[in-house]
Design a protein that fits this description.
mainly beta; five-stranded antiparallel sheet; 33% strand; six-stranded mixed sheet; 9% helix
Length: 423
């Protein structure tokens, strides 16, 4: 029976024989849940792979877990709704809290399990092929940096089916986001049309100016292939699905750099893993948004909606909500043809620093005639510590001090047989 006495602050203290050790109890939890980010070269500020690395941060580990900040997971849903949820069990939390509150002992190094293996830093494992920018891009120490576009020919001689995509910045400290497109002719979804977009909300936006020559041909169609933003996991598509790339295409990388006070360089890489199935189901990466958003100066709780209709039966595998630093929460409601409404994703505390593709453990089966309505709430007041300027009205814009109401979707048609007419 454990003997517990109240600590001066924080969790309960345990008798020495009941204190978890790093080697036996803590390391397995960190390896399973934390070291994907907490390792050299990744987004987290410290590594937790070894006892020597983790021990100095025991108090911070205790506080972040106790306050619910780590692991970073923001969806309000029961355990098991999402495949990629970052959550600790109650038992795992208890082990970490008791360890950190009782001297954070190492224990017997012989109890330490093998450390996880990461393939040269790639979260998706060893890519089948890697592309990278032809040269380093120089990021100035200060100033606004217009979007840059970089182009890499694939030289594919035949269609390729992609099962995983990872955009790996060379310098995460200056990369605000990156979007990866594939341009080829023809390069559009094959089979049944799925989405009916709201053309009023999705007004044609001007292409952000880039300092690189505009070598791309806008007459050649392009498709979104992958996304990188702070805290975003690489795109690993569900088993049996893949994204088709036409032969002879070019990868277009839209890079949004942000100056951080020090001159820097970046050379971003793209890793792709090919599908192993001979005939995977085609998955489409697409989006909808409301470019008409307007946030009055000083407003604390402005709601902006966007919607998309379904022209045919479809499967929705994942949803990616995106705003900038004024965004504070999201909700997605699926409206069925019979009038039934169902909340399929709620993010009550959206965090710009941890943007997530929420992947459903049981994909949504959406019937023809349904609508998916996204609602985002914004705080444009002085009460928002992240607000760049609460005295200005805010419109849609590419820079962090502007705003977006954007949703990424991973979808497939149920009956992929009719030639596409609508993306």
């Amino acid at each position: 029976m454990s003997t517990l006495t109240p600590a001066a602050s924080g969790p309960l203290q345990a008798a020495a024989q009941d204190v978890p050790t790093f080697s036996k109890d803590v390391a397995p939890i960190l390896y399973k849940n934390c070291t994907g980010c907490h390792r050299p070269g990744e987004i987290a500020p410290m590594s937790l792979l070894t006892y020597a690395e983790a021990r100095p941060h025991a108090k911070a580990i205790r506080d972040e877990i106790r306050d619910g900040n780590m692991p970073p997971w923001h969806a309000d849903a029961p355990h098991g709704v999402f495949l990629n949820e970052r959550r600790l069990s109650d038992t795992e939390k208890d082990i970490l809290l008791r360890w950190a509150s009782n001297g954070a002992p190492e224990g017997n190094p012989k109890d330490l399990p093998p450390a996880p293996s990461y393939e040269n830093g790639w979260a998706i494992g060893k890519p089948d092929i890697v592309f990278e920018m032809a040269e380093d891009y120089k990021v100035p120490a200060q100033g606004t940096i217009a979007y840059e576009y970089f182009y890499i020919p694939t030289n594919f001689k035949e269609p390729k089916w992609i099962q995983a995509v990872e955009i790996r910045p060379g310098n995460r400290s200056v990369v605000h986001h990156a979007l990866l497109f594939h341009r080829a002719a023809p390069d559009q979804p094959r089979g049944t049309p799925i989405l009916q977009l709201n053309r009023e909300q999705m007004t044609l936006l001007p292409s952000p100016p880039g300092t690189r020559p505009a070598v791309r041909d806008r007459n050649i169609p392009g498709r979104l292939l992958g996304t990188y933003a702070p805290g975003t996991n690489p795109q690993v598509f569900p088993a049996g699905t893949a994204v088709r790339l036409e032969p002879g295409g070019t990868l277009e990388i839209q890079m949004h750099y942000t100056a951080n006070g020090e001159a820097a360089t970046d050379r971003t890489k793209i890793g792709l893993i090919f599908a192993k199935e001979p005939s995977p189901q085609e998955l489409r990466v697409t989006q909808f948004y409301n470019a008409l958003l307007s946030l009055p100066a000083g407003s604390r709780d402005t709601r902006i909606d966007a919607e998309v209709g379904f022209l045919n039966d479809a499967i929705v595998w994942g949803v990616f909500p995106h705003t900038h630093v004024r965004g504070k929460k999201w909700e997605y409601v699926l409206e069925l043809p019979d009038g039934t409404k169902k909340v399929v994703l709620s993010v009550p505390k959206y965090d710009f620093n941890w943007q997530t593709y929420y992947m459903f453990a049981e994909p949504l089966k959406v019937p023809k005639g349904a609508r998916l309505v996204s609602s985002a709430w914004y705080d444009n007041s002085a009460a928002n510590p992240s607000n760049p300027d609460p005295k200005v009205d805010v419109k849609w814009g590419d820079q962090t001090w502007e705003e977006m109401q954007y949703t990424g979707l991973l979808i497939t048609p149920v009956s992929p047989s009719v030639p596409p007419t609508v993306k």
